[in-house]
Design goal:
The protein is mainly α. The protein folds into 2 domains: 79 residues, Arc Repressor Mutant, subunit A; 34 residues, no CATH class. It contains 5 helices and 2 strands. The protein has a two-stranded antiparallel ribbon with strand order 1-2. β1 and β2 form a beta hairpin. α2 packs across α3. The protein is globular, with a radius of gyration of 15 Å.
């Protein structure tokens, strides 16, 4: 799986790492049980701080995408793949939100208010 990070992007490095993992799951490059690189190794490869990788991994654990096991590291816990229409709509929302200066937290609050 190819991990790409844009250090000049307005999207946080943590969120970019989360997106890389989610894309790997959606594309089926990552399957249940697949290990992710150790945080220190990935941080060095992407030229980011180790804590940034750990924060991304924690977010993915919170959403159920990853699980942590002592001595085994971070592994893919589930590979639920959303319907393509849902993914397309989500990407469109993110794009429109960014165009209008809204970040992830703004969009999340908006969605919560509407539901």
């Amino acid at each position: 799986m190819l991990w790409t990070i844009d250090h000049s992007s307005s999207t946080s490095l943590r969120e970019q790492i989360v997106t890389c993992v989610r894309r790997g799951v959606i594309s089926r490059d990552l399957a249940v049980g697949d290990p992710l690189p150790p945080a220190a190794e990935l941080a060095e490869a992407l030229s980011v701080d180790r804590n940034t990788v750990l924060a991304a991994y924690r977010e993915l654990r919170t959403t159920g995408v990853l699980e942590f096991r002592r001595g085994r590291g971070a592994r893919v816990a589930r590979t639920t793949i959303p319907e393509p229409a849902v993914l397309e709509a989500a990407h469109a929302l993110i794009d429109v939100g960014r165009t209008h200066g809204l970040d992830r937290d703004d969009l999340t609050r908006l969605i919560q208010e509407l539901t």
